[in-house]
Amino acid sequence: MDKKIIIFVIVAIAIVGIGVYGYGVYSSGSENGTLVIYAASSLAGQMNQTAAKFESQHPNVKVQIKYGGSSDLINQITTLNQSVDIMASADYGLIDKNLMPNYTSYNLKNGRNEMVIAYTDKSKNSSQINGENWYQIFSQNNVSVGIADPNSAPAGYRGVMMMQLASTYYNDSTLFDTVIGQNTAITSEQNGSKTVINSPTNIDPTSKIVVRPAVGDLMPVLQSGAVDYILVYKSDADQQQSSGVKYVTLPPELALSNTTYEPVYKNISMVQFSGTNKSKTIGLTPIVYGITILNNAPNKQLATDFLQLLLSPEGIQITKSNFIDPISPAEATINSTNIPSQLQQYVKMP
């Protein structure tokens, strides 16, 4: 074989190898330090597994992850000046709105989820509930419902706004008030075709509504039998099926996973911490995760290596194994700039 052809073949194989296995080219076991990640609690399975893989490839590195409601975690970064390398949010819009451009220069949409109703055999009327009658069962006096805190967790404000959306979908004008309005201090008001939900600092729930800081805090309450049904992400319910957790899927319009319905979602918004100087308005959006490296990340190279693993084919498999629908390549939001060259093979620009 001609020597030039042989050289060409070798170079071509090397290029393909870099494209498919690029993560291995950049990773280095000689690095050391502590990588600090703030992440939505619904990402715990994915992040823990990715961190374990990363630590095995970087023996001198410790990955430290703090989980919670995305809004609360971002607030800790912006108001408490917490030293953080990576922020992974259950609502990519929170990064665009609160961290760009002062705290980061880019935001990568890297996964999708959907809202479901989780329950167990101990839940009241569990043998009857389905995707068509769930809202009627929620309305029953003796049935309790768990939600994440709408002031701190995307799953919380999405769950509450979904209940308002369901009122329209099922043509039941009393649904929101029966489940949420009469059992919390949360209120809803119409303004033409728009609906504004007000969520005060003190939600003041009755025994019908159980509120926890983050979506990850709801599952233990359900499994203990302290609540009948919880509004959570599908990935959370899927991960607990072996423990007896079941779930009802919602109609596509209510599951919040399909961008087709964004024009409808824009008619609903929530004022968090209403009536205070901390109040802020957030709209209903599809469940799309976002992730970024902070501008002042103490370990920027380690953070870049971690994101490269997460976005690589190996990381995508980890994401899928934790029942999250990956966005691959990840999609940079419209104002993103200065994305590290190391990540660009896994990112689609707007």
Automatic annotation (TrEMBL):
SUPFAM superfamilies listed in its UniProt record: Periplasmic binding protein-like II
One MF annotation (Gene Ontology) recorded for this entry: molybdate ion binding
InterPro entries: ABC_trnspt_W-bd_WtpA (IPR022498), ModA/WtpA (IPR050682)
Any GO BP: molybdate ion transport
Pfam families per the UniProt record, alphabetical: SBP_bac_11
Tagged with keyword Transmembrane helix: yes
Annotated keywords: Membrane, Transmembrane, Transmembrane helix
TM annotation in the entry: 5-26
Entries under Gene3D superfamilies matching the protein: Periplasmic binding protein-like II
Annotated family: Belongs to the bacterial solute-binding protein 1 family. WtpA subfamily.
Protein name: Extracellular solute-binding protein family 1
